Amino acid sequence: MKFKSIKKWGLRVLTILITISIISCIGVKSQVKQHLGEKTYLVDPSIFNVDSSAIAIANVNVLSTDCTEMLDNLNVLIKNKKIIQISKEINIPNEYKIIDGTGKYLIPGLVDTHAHLHRSKNDLLLYLANGITHISEMFGTEKHLKWRKEAENGSLSPKIYVASRKLSSKKGLMPKIRSWFGSSPNYTTKNNARKAIIKFKEQGYDAIKLSSFLNAEIYYALTDEAKKQDIPTLGHLTYPVGLKGLYISGQSQLAHIEEITKATMHDFGGMDSSNTEEYLTYLKNNANDIAIKLKEVDMVVSSTVWIIESIPKQNFDIENFLKTIELEYQNPGEVEGSRLAKGWLPSNNSYENMDIKNDSELIKKHKLFWKTYVEAIHIMAKALVKHNVTIITGTDSNTAGVVAGFSLHDEFESLYKCGMTNSQILYAATVAPAQWMKSDAGKIEVGHRADLVLLTKNPLDDIKNTRTINAVISNGKLLDRKVLDEILQSIKDANNKSRKVSIDRFIN
What we know:
Blueprint: H1 2-35, E1 55-63, E2 70-79, E3 82-87, E4 97-100, E5 105-108, E6 110-115, H2 122-129, E7 132-137, H3 142-152, E8 159-162, H4 173-180, H5 190-203, E9 208-210, H6 216-229, E10 233-235, H7 242-249, E11 253-254, H8 258-268, H9 276-296, E12 300-302, H10 305-316, H11 318-322, H12 332-336, H13 360-386, E13 390-392, H14 406-417, H15 422-429, H16 431-436, E14 452-455, E15 469-474, E16 477-480, H17 481-498
Parallel strand pairs: 1-4, 1-5, 6-7, 7-8, 9-10, 10-11, 11-12, 12-13
Antiparallel strand pairs: 1-2, 2-3, 5-14, 14-15, 15-16
């Protein structure tokens, strides 16, 4: 009887523990959904009056295929999702909807090569409203593969390039548990790493994302197998591999210019507030050689400069920083965060340093560190530009402070400060990323996909003019200014319905 009683109570305890575990998992998943924006009301794209008929843009100034000049007074015919004719003299058939392009400027649809969609399809509309017709999702899931398929089948969306989740080689129970809830999968043997590459390719991913947390053995197994499977690798640079290893690895894209400067800080022996001048001297002495070697191996670098410039502002002046971004359009789940993850708001911001608020000396040291960190990015960017390394525009959207869609135009201004001409920036935002992703977009050329943006001002005169959007054509679908405004208002309304924390004090 005693044994039976113990067994009975043991089963009860086990049942209780299992119940608690299930409830905990449900709670964790609910919080994950919250901070990844899945609980925000969705906008129904079918409510917008999008025109899919044949289109003629008449008498418009067209950006040349090398992005160096505007070609005056051309007529561009679009039918069946393709550009079918570009000419000065043309008879426009009656079936075409004519858009008067007089005094306007036509450029290819813009590309954000470092986007994080997370779990809200509203962002797809937000990209389109900002002239972005192609994005690269840099932490892909089966959900994003589904959205890519829907876009291919005609849903209102940018074209989506999907990289896998970041692959790591961390060991232990906690990394494994985190991977169950969507964090980076970990591979601790070369055999498993190679199998992962084959699996991700079979699932339909366009590229393999590499994390900063890879040991050299697993990193080289991943890049080697990816070459065999003919699938590109991109992402971060792990310290055990370093720049020397990167040059021979076969990795084809770095996800941030920051990855290069972090590697130089590591090679320098570490940078802090006590050695900033020495580090910057070291970087200036080595930046050109690094850029030359990256050019030699045809490395492509996604920019993500603006987010680095924003970190000191978020760190030390979050209240005023939030007033400078389009916060009302950002998914409130991301802004508010959850019990598991910080958001964007004061006292809960991912970059805000609460530990030094009342220590003036520490604040001074941290400000010097971040000033140097940003300057290092600028130095390296200028070296990349000088030596014609292929830069493609990326934002790291949905990271704290980086509003999907709007942030790409911020990125353009940052790249201008880094020494890129307006022409080079437009090339980095259209032709270069389309070529790297093997897309039939990126140029205004006969036979190319009809992804276009009609501007009221010339972006070659001022890169800020990419914001003067009159209309967007995405995969042959016309979204005029009225529709674009309706999209933005609908997203704002959906966000306000979903909001748990007021952001009124940050809205001008």
